[in-house]
């Protein structure tokens, strides 16, 4: 298994994976829109020896009350159903966080299971005065600090990239 940044040839495999992993095509359409609009900050894939995409993590820009602070959102995250429980999602997340840190990004936000994401160092966003406009997201909206000063002066609502509005 190879974990690496996505390249152009991966797009079709990512689309197929997302359509298999989610009950609707919304996540596949979101990822395609982010890519087409130049809003895909980073895509990380897990591939087999033949290059088939078996896992995927996308990162796209967010702002804090309209201000670009070098933050990104992690979404979607998917692993082929037959391979879950083997640590592939963890490898995708760690690779993404390491790459974003190298590129100088400050923080990552995610809407997801706190029990899962806390293992990577994500913490409740409300703890640092941040929230999202997603309904009922207080318990699942989390942040990860990449830069020591990431949360200084940051409070309020996180704005996701435009394609996310279609999911509301």
Describe this structure in words.
The protein is an alpha+beta fold and 168 residues long. It contains 4 helices and 9 strands; from the N terminus they run βααβββαβαββββ. The chain has helices at 11-21, 26-36, 88-102, 114-117; strands at residues 2-5, 42-47, 53-64, 67-79, 107-111, 123-124, 130-132, 141-145, 156-160. The longest helix has 15 residues, at 88-102. The model has no long low-confidence stretch (mean pLDDT 96).
Task: Briefly say what this structure is.
The chain has helices at residues 11-21, 26-36, 88-102, 114-117; strands at 2-5, 42-47, 53-64, 67-79, 107-111, 123-124, 130-132, 141-145, 156-160. With 168 residues, the chain is α+β, with helices and mostly antiparallel strands.
Return Rg in Å: 15 Å
Helix content range of the residues, please?
10-25%
The geometry reads as: globular
Low-pLDDT runs of 5+ residues are none
Count of runs of 4 or more consecutive helical residues: 4
User: Distance between the terminal alpha carbons, to the nearest Å?
Assistant: 35 Å
Taking all residues together, what is the mean pLDDT?
Answer: 96
Strand content: 25-35%
Strand tally = 9
Broad structural category:
alpha+beta
Q: Characterize the biggest β-sheet.
A: 9 strands, mixed
Order of helices and strands: EHHEEEHEHEEEE
